[in-house]
Amino acid sequence: xxxxxxxxxxxxxxxAGCSGQNNNDPATKGNExxxxxxxxxxxxxxxxxxxxxxxxxxxPVKKFMESHPNVTIEIVSQPSSNISSRDxxxxxxxxxxxxDVMVMTSPGDFINSGSLLAFDEADLDYIADTSVGKFEGKNxxxxxKKQVGGVFYNxxxxxxxxxxxxxxxxEFIALNEAIKAKGTTPISLGxxxxxxxxxxxxxxxxxxxxxxDPDWGKKRNAGEVAFADDxxxxxxxxxxxxxxxxxxxxxxxxxxxxxxxxxxNEQTAMYIMGSWTQADDIRLEHDFEVGFFPMxxxxxxxxIPVWLNEGLAISADTKHPEVAKAFxxxxxxxxxxxxxxxxxEMLFPVTKEEVEYDKSDLRMExxxxxxxxKQVENFYDMTGDxxxxxxxxxxxxxxxxxxxxxxxxxxKKELExxxxxxxxxxxxxxx
Length: 431
Fold this sequence. Notes:
Elements: H1 2-17, E1 40-45, H2 54-67, E2 71-76, H3 85-94, E3 101-104, H4 108-111, E4 142-143, E5 147-154, H5 155-161, H6 169-181, E6 185-188, H7 196-210, H8 216-221, H9 230-245, H10 256-264, E7 268-274, H11 278-283, E8 290-293, E9 303-307, E10 311-314, H12 321-333, H13 335-344, H14 361-370, E11 374-377, H15 392-405, H16 411-429
Parallel strand pairs: 1-2, 1-3, 6-7, 9-11
Antiparallel strand pairs: 3-10, 4-10, 5-7, 5-8, 5-9
């Protein structure tokens, strides 16, 4: 049944994306900034993923070009699935092929080289909160979605085992112990791809560190705190215990796809991930209900980490900045396309205007629970002046793999190494 719903959803998106426009279509915004006689060509670098193929990104591009007949937009994507959009953009910049508009997740890698265009406040009057993600008071990325992170679990399995959602860290550990005692792997995790494990560490840092000190990232970049401080070491020890004690021993050889499939095949009771995985709940066949709860900290489970780091950016060297801005605004505000885009992964809107779309039961459950949560940024993808310095995300990736797989690892020494990496990155910025 869920596969049928997914097929219907995809067909609805594609057909709607190809439908004609109405007279009030926001795609026409920006026409006043474009000389109708001038032929304009833009390149648009996207983040192609299995759930977001090129055909999906083509929908807004085609619709925008229909209302701007003198504009041509060429889509550029990663050459292979094992290259991230961030690394692809670095290559394009180095080879003189930096796109006019791009999906951006790590602006800090590009701002200091002067590669991105800064938006004026007036450019972003459609965004609900423009204070998020500012670098030295300026916006370089227009967010197009909000995502949340937490623990997804098998409600039927919990009920059979007499388990409840935990309300603090102690209860969460006891929950894992109880599931393990029943002969089931508590948490589905695979580190083969080098990134799923960082979600767990990042959520722990968000709920333990940023709940009490939301400015911790800014303080680190100002040299006022360190990664090897006791409160961060404590979180790393939690991460090591969680990943090494309650996940499959073969986690090193398990891919992201395999870890998700293990959960939906009922080989595990939980997995820790961002809300984009709701697409898997629709895509993968299963006959149990999936639930969600936040990553608990020592005192409660009332903090929800959110991602606001991903959006659209514009090259500082684009020959057509006004057209590029018009396309960005259309992408984020067009009601029809915004609904399709958000529905693809059951995302949360970031615009002043609410975006309505058909939501799954899981999506509605998360939305309802969020009303009582404190929202903090996801640690790994902190934005603006709090963002990890260029290069530190790559170190974090490798460090969290080591912490999840090496039983003899000294987490404090690892964090001391990360402080040294920060010093290198900071020195590079200040040259």
